Known about the structure:
Layout: H1 5-14, E1 28-32, E2 35-41, E3 47-53, E4 61-63, E5 69-71, E6 81-86, E7 88-90, E8 95-100, E9 108-115, E10 118-122, E11 137-138, E12 163-167, H2 169-173, H3 186-191, E13 197-198, E14 205-206, H4 208-215, E15 219-222, E16 226-228, E17 246-252, H5 263-280, E18 283-288, H6 299-303, H7 332-348, E19 353-356, H8 364-378, E20 384-387, H9 409-412, E21 417-420, H10 422-429, H11 444-461, H12 474-482, E22 495-497, H13 507-514, H14 518-533, E23 538-542, H15 562-565, H16 570-574, H17 576-590, H18 593-596, E24 606-612, E25 615-620, E26 623-628, E27 634-637, E28 643-647, E29 663-666, E30 670-676
Parallel strand pairs: 12-15, 12-23, 15-18, 18-19, 19-20, 20-21, 21-22, 22-23
Antiparallel strand pairs: 1-2, 2-8, 3-6, 3-9, 4-5, 7-8, 9-10, 9-11, 13-14, 16-17, 24-25, 25-26, 26-30, 27-29, 28-30
Helix pairs in contact: 7-8, 10-12, 13-14, 14-17
Amino acid sequence: MKKTAVLWKKYYKENKNTPEFNYTGQLGARVVEGGTMVRLWSPVAEEVRLNLYSDGGEGKVRRDGYGVLVRDESADENAGLVMTVPMTYDRKNGIWVYMTEENLAGAYYDFDITIEGVTRKSSDPYAVAAGVNGQRSMILPREMSNPEGWKEDKAPERTGTNVIYEINVREFSYQLEMGEDAGRYTAFKRFLSGENFGIKGTSYSINPFEHMKKLGVTHVQLMPAYDFGSVDERMTTEEFNWGYDPMNYNVPEGSFSTDPFSGETRVREFKEMVQALHTAGFRVIMDVVYNHTYNLENSFQKTVPWYYYRVSENGETSNGSRCGNDVASERLMVGRFILNSIMYWAEEYHIDGFRFDLMGLLDTELMNEIRRNLDERFGKGEKLIYGEPWAAGDTEMEDGFTPALKKNANDFLDKNVGFFSDDIRDDIKGSVFDPKSTGFVNGGCIDQEMVDAINAKLAETGELKTEDIPEKRIEEKIAAAVTAYHERGFSPSQIVRYVSSHDDLTLWDKLTITTPDEELRKKQNILAAAAYILGQGHIFMLSGEEFLRTKGGEDNSYNLPITVNRLDWAECIRNKDIVELYSELIYIRKNCEALADLGPKAYKRVKIMKAENGVVAFQAEDIFVVLNSNETKAYSPVPEGSWEMIIGNIDDRVSSEKWNERVRSFDQVSVTVYKRINIPMGNSIVDIYMDDNKVIRD
Length: 698
């Protein structure tokens, strides 16, 4: 009788401490001194045969009844077959081995694996290169794929502030006049020239690297660029997908390459992209998806059935990812695979950080081990890691392990494992789960006043208990976010501050729903930017947010046409005034040591002056910030000392009964920033008058 998922789960639990389930050596195919070595971990296989090919195959795929790309059975699986050889089982280590004196560099391969009497063809889960659509793995020594100058490539020096800019390789350059390079890895190398590229359908031109430099970006986060299964790499049609569908974890995606049939080309072009970003002054972060795989028809399942996946006691596949499966990170060899994969990308591709998709489905022990290994190998904090501290649903994690959820961060996660703050995101502009909901910048404070009044009345009548009334108003929540929620035990090193990412509505689309008036909406957009940029923690933004990026109101564009998802660089030109304000806010943030401080005591460098009536005002040592969400002017005193306005309305003096020597007025729906004047000028405020409302810098 063949084992069910439940019986496999029981078997692995009973054998988890045996040597064959604790292999620590190298896996995959490598050219070594004296020949070529191929190792595959499959302790439950009865027989494994290695197939060697002259090419990467046809890569034929079709979509099944659910729209999932699967191997096309009409394809000739043996096309290009050169030889088939048996592999030898190393019982002590649970691995199958083939060694030859021949140098097999450039050869493609896969396995015929027999388990419980059934033989299935599989790629290598530990492959570092692959043919088209990842169906055949490739033996690729490092020296075959390194671009010129790769050994000298290194990341730019770290700065005090991390400003992370999220991009998709295809979206980023798709709209530019770049010929075949548009939407591919190779576009990035061309940006180094400093040349402006025409924007399709317009008379405008731009160089994205120059734009990001002026904006103040320090890190570029690449949406999935490993080999994913949701796009046919042959590109016989115009397909698009974000790529949160892993196939080969240690192989670059082929659809971004100029030649997806060549395993070597995609590797070299990926490295050239990283090299170009480094040369331009940007660190590179990779979006990694270790919480689930594209489907169960993959090398994990074919080599060690149900070992890599969580199942319930009744045999159902765990689906906390809502993508069909959950990877069992807590199992020893799975966690080791993930750790080794991270280290491989960091070492081989010079990746500077990792963003973990649905990190809440991974266990804290693994995340801490990743943090520890990166620190030991590259230096403490040299590599940035953060993730989504949530899951899409419940998962069947084994007992004794803790999921890397936000609620577990303080007690179980290293303080240098960051996480996205959904509190900041939703408090600023409303919940992502309700398009019409509002936050601080778009009417939420007025709504809160109404709620407070209703709650007070209900409390008087006994219909609502006092303890059920929310403790904090929206203004107080925004103020708490400035110091990265230190009162909850968090440190700025843990907090990723943002209002938009590839998921959900763009900031502009969200505000379009809640605010019909376009001019008011622009003010709210700037106020939202100020609310997350001017605070302690890491700064994160969706590419194009700074020029009012829209996806036409689509809140989940993962598989919509590239015409919906492409980055419309023409809007960067049209909204240059908004871009300039973003740049100024980032400049202020970078130059304010109190806000750049990521330490656990950083909160002591910030003083909240006001958090009520739609206004949040705070002093961060040498800067004073006022966020006014009201559609009328607001008033607040400026701290003691001499200050000059660097962002704000031209004439902030207050007259009549509201006047005193320290009170200033603040425009409706605005951000105002003062900088301390470090020369003795008495106790009066220095009034600064600015032409055309431009920002003044020292």
